[in-house]
Amino acid sequence: MLASAATLRSLARVVRSKNAGPLCLSLDLFFLDEQAYARAVSSPALSVASVAALYGFPPEQVRRFDLPHLFAIKLTLPRRLCAGDPGDGDVYGAQQHAPLLELAL
Amino acid sequence: MTAVDRLLSQHRPGGQRLRVLSASGQLGYGIPKESFERGLARQPDLIGCDMGSIDPGPYYLGSGQMAAPAAMVRRDLELVLCAARRLDVPLIIGSAGTAGARPHLQATLSVLRQVAQAHDLSLKVATVCSDVPLPVMLGALQDGRLKPLDEGAAGSPLALPQPEQLQAAAHIVAQCGTQTFVRALEQRPDVLIAGRSCDTAIFAALPLMLGYPEALALHMAKIIECTSLCCIPGGRDAMLAELGMDDFILESMNPLLHATPASVAAHALYEQADPWCVDEPEGTLDLRQARYEAIDAHRTRVSGACFVPRAQPTLKVEGAARLGARTVLLAGVADPTLIAQLPAVLQAVGQRVRSLLPGPWQMVEHVYGQGAVRPLPPEQRSAHEVALMLEFLAPDASLARTAAAVFKQTLLHWSYPGRLSTGGNLAFAITPSEIDAHDSYRFVLYHLLEGVDPESVFGIDLLHWHGAQA
Question: Tell me: the pLDDT tens digits for B91-108?
Answer without folding.
Answer: 999 999 999 999 999 999
